Amino acid sequence: MPLNYHDQVNLLTDILTNQQTDCCGSVAECEQLERLVKSLMVNSNLDQNVKPVLQEIYDYSQNGKYTSDLDEHILTNQENLSSWVNNIGSFS
User: Fold this and answer.
1) What domain count does the chain have?
2) Integer CA distances (angstroms), 61 to 12, 16, 19, 44, in order
């Protein structure tokens, strides 16, 4: 059963919040973030103001997927993670 828009936003927010809180994550989480962002970007109901935020999250997940030190990547993006969660929350 596919996730609806709100489920996708909630899952995206949960993963980002967990990475921010725990300062660690996995390649699988980065891949999940990519899939969620891609799915949300093609949603015609998406607020256009959130697209730049989703692109930043996509870039973050791409970089995280290929970094040699994912925990350090997450640590250096703490402010971004907080900002993204706040921004997504305001559009969902």
Assistant:
1) 1
2) 11, 10, 11, 23
